Amino acid sequence: MAATLQETPSKNARKVGAPTAAGGKYLTFKLANEEYGVEILKVREINGLMDITAVPQMPHYMKGVINLRGKVVPVIDLRLKFGLNEAEHTDQTCIIVVDVGREVGIIVDTVSEVLDINNDNIEPPPTLNRSVDTSFILGMGKVGDAVKILLDINKVLTTEELESVTDIAVNADETVEE
Fold first, then answer.
1. CA distance 109 to 145
2. Which helix (H) or strand (E) holds 153?
C-alpha cells in the first residue's frame, strides 16, 4: 500500500522526504537494544535458527545459505549488515524470510510482535550527514513512548549486493542438486 504525495496541500499532506509507504502492519524485531519493523506483506515466514551452510568468499554479513524445504535461501546477519557487533545466538534468535524479489533470510535477535502503525504515527527518517545512508529506513514509527525503526527491506541490500547474494544462492542450489 503506497501513499502518494497530494498535489494540493491539506492538513493530511505528508512532508517532502516522508516515507513513501502508508501506515500498516509491521513485524517488529530487536537488534541490540533497538526495535525495528518490516512490512508484514514482505515477510514469508519466521524460523528458529537452523544450520547455515557457509559459502566461500561471501561478504562478512552474509552467513551462508539454508535449505528451506528444498529451496536454497541466502541468510544475512542484519546486525553485521548494520555495522553492529555480532552477538551470540540464543533460543530467541530467529531467521525472518523476506521477499525482496527473491527470498532472503535475515537473522535477528528476537521477534517482538505484529503492530498496526497508523500513517499519522510514522515520521520521516532523521536527516543525517551525507556520509550516513538512511535510504533503507522507511520511517520512524511512534508506538506509545517507543520508536520503531521501520525498514524498507527492499533497500537494505543494494542492487549489487542482492545480485551477489542471488549468484551465491544459485551456485549453492546447483551444488545441492548435483
1. 22
2. helix 153-156
Cell of 114: 505484529
Buried b (16+ CB within 10 A) or exposed e, 101-129: eebbbbbbbebbeebebebebbebbeeee
Grid cell of 157 as nine digits: 541490500
- Can you name the residues that pair with 115 across neighbouring β-strands? 26
pLDDT tens track for 54-73: 988 888 999 999 999 999 99
CATH match for 24-123+133-177 among 3.90.1150.10, 2.40.50.180, 2.160.10.10, 3.40.50.1820: 2.40.50.180
Beta bridge partners of 67: 72
For residue range 105-159, what is the model confidence (pLDDT) as tens digits? Answer: 999 999 999 999 999 999 988 777 666 677 899 999 999 999 999 999 999 887 7
DSSP conformation letters of 57-114: T--TTEEEEEEETTEEEEEEEHHHHTTPPP----TT-EEEEEESSSEEEEEESEEEEE
